[in-house]
Each structure stands twice: as C-alpha cells, then as structure tokens.
Design a protein that fits this description.
FSH-like_dom, AB_hydrolase_fold, 18 strands, single chain, Rossmann fold, alpha/beta, 6-stranded parallel β-sheet, about 325 residues
C-alpha cells in the first residue's frame, strides 16, 4: 500500500508493508513524478485589451499561492501595439498591446486571423502548453483556441488543451466563427470567473455554456481580475486537482486552521471537500482519520505498532483502522 503526501512542490510517498515498516521515497519513483516542479501545468496567459502580459501577471499575483503553485505561467504581450488610449494608464506603465481589433458591435474583427496564427505558432514553439488563462479579450481568445482545436481547425500538431480559465470572457459574435468554435460543447475543463458588476457578466455566462460542465465562480466585483475569497480558493483548488488527474495524492489548499486537534472521518463523499487532505483507501477497507493541520503536511513518523503515525500540531496525524 502506498500513501502519498504533498509537501510544497514535492510529493512524498510512504509505502506500508505488512511487517509494519514504512519506507519513504520520492513520488517520481513510484507514481510518475507528477509532483516535481517540471510537472507544473504550463499555462499560456493572455492579457486584456490594451494592457500587457506584465499587467496580467501583476493581477494574477494577488491570488492565493495554493492556486498558483500548480501552474507554470507564461505571459506574452499582444501581437499589436495599442491603437488608442489604455484604461490602465493611471495605474500601470506602458507599453500596452492588443491582440486584434473589432468594431463597436463586436461583430467584425481586424487582424484576428493573424493573431490566431501567431498564438498557434507561439504555443508550438514554446510549448507544449497544458492550458490557457485569459482576461477579457484574452479570455475570449482562450476559449476560441480551445474550440477551434476541438474541431480540428488549429493546433493539430500541439497536444490537446486540457483546461481554460476564463476571467470576464465572452463569445465571438461572427456567425462564421460561432458555427465552428462553439458548434459542440467544448470538452475541456473550464473555470469561469464572473463579476456581478462586470459589464460583460451576461456574455461571460454565455461563454460558460459553450463548455462541457464548466465551473462558475462568481464575485461581487466588476471588470477585473478579482481577489478570491476563501470559498473561491477552495473551489478553484479542487478544480485544479481534477485537472491534474491525480488519484493518489490530493492537494491541501488554503489550510489556515490552528488550535486544538480534532478528528474527522474521511469518507468517499469527503474526497474533494477541500477542507482536509483527502485520503481514501476503500480497496483496503481502512477508515482513515485526519486531524486538523496547518497549511501543509510537514512530516510523519511511525510510533507504537503497525497502524499509527503520530505527530505534533505542525504534523499530519494519521490513524488507520482495520486489518492489513
């Protein structure tokens, strides 16, 4: 039996033998190395209209580290210099860029084909990329690339896009684009951050319907990359875990609880609760009890028989019940 624990970016496994001994080893040797820094999800981050990659990087940096630690984020600048005034001139220095241009009704586009070709070439040369993250114009583009790839229109020589994180995105309105990109539900994991005061609230909701089983995270702010509250962090962490597809180890997200130790039973329905490190070993019919812990699992050591790992407040305390 192998139980895997997460410590920062390294996943450590404890292999339990019937003789009652534990053997520690690196996750890479027994489960393919998903926990190493090199295995972070490489993500292309596309900024909004007349801003820059550096500005989006600053916006994203205010998110909880428990989310960002899973991603290798790349922030390119738009293909074209801003053709007019930027809305961020008072808060962030130039230069500013745009990905393409559009008319007042957002039904006609200039340089969109050039933009798509540029991004596909960028992803091929600098990738492969696991997914896309975008704000506003960048989010609209991210969804378009995922939809186009699903229909075989672009990125045929690039691995399938695994996920899209859309912040204040929208659909294109040109029927020629819609008939291809949104022809069928896009079977890519997606998370959509939608602001209650965003002027693109309704278009953002419409974009979410283009995806199969989207995660929608609402916030009370406007057209911005929002700060995420505790619940949003938890949901996004759970979603990220599902993207990782890691069935052996589950990430602890935003665990700030401290104080007296408490016991909780981890059942099958608790596996993705986000409030505990979910450990589920139903095949061995063992009930696992986890005690409240601080941010990350620190360490564990065997003490007193075959079925206990004991520790202090800063350590995981795990009790296994049942026969080996």
């Amino acid at each position: 039996m192998v139980v895997c624990f997460v410590y920062e970016e390294i996943i450590i496994c404890r292999e339990y033998h019937k003789a009652g001994s534990w053997k520690g080893n690196e996750f890479g040797r027994c489960c393919g190395g998903m926990g190493s820094k090199e295995k972070k999800m490489k993500t292309l981050c596309l900024h909004g209209f007349r801003t820059s990659g550096s500005f989006l990087q600053q916006q994203i940096s205010k998110w909880d580290p428990s989310i960002l630690q899973e991603f290798d984020l790349v922030f390119p600048d738009g293909l074209f210099p801003a053709g007019g005034k930027s809305d961020i001139e008072d808060v962030f220095p130039p230069p500013y860029f745009e990905w393409y241009q559009f008319n007042k009704d957002f039904t006609e586009y200039t340089n969109l084909d050039e933009c798509i070709s540029y991004l596909c070439d960028y992803m091929t040369k600098n990738g492969p990329f696991d997914g896309l993250l975008g704000f506003s114009q960048g989010a609209t583009l991210s969804a378009l690339l995922a939809g186009y790839q699903a229909q075989g229109k672009v990125l045929s020589d690039h691995p399938p896009i695994k996920f899209v994180i859309s912040i204040s995105g929208s659909k294109f309105r040109d029927p020629n684009i819609c008939d291809v990109a949104y022809k069928e539900p896009i079977k890519v994991k997606s998370a959509h951050l939608i602001g209650d005061k965003d002027w693109l609230k309704i278009p953002s909701e419409e974009l979410a319907t283009a995806f199969d089983n989207p995660l929608i995270l609402r916030h009370p702010q406007g057209h911005t990359v929002p700060r995420l509250d505790e619940a949003a962090v938890r949901h996004l962490c759970e979603w990220t875990t599902s993207v990782l597809g890691d069935t052996f180890a589950h990430r602890s997200c935003n665990l700030e609880n401290s104080g007296a130790e408490e016991t909780n039973t981890a059942s099958h329905s608790d596996v993705n609760s986000g409030s505990l490190i979910p450990t589920y070993l139903s095949d061995l019919r063992r009930e696992l009890v986890l005690l409240r812990m601080e941010k990350l699992i620190r360490s564990g050591n065997l003490e007193g028989g075959k079925n206990k790992i004991r520790g202090n407040r800063r350590k995981l305390v795990l009790v296994e019940n049942g026969e080996s």
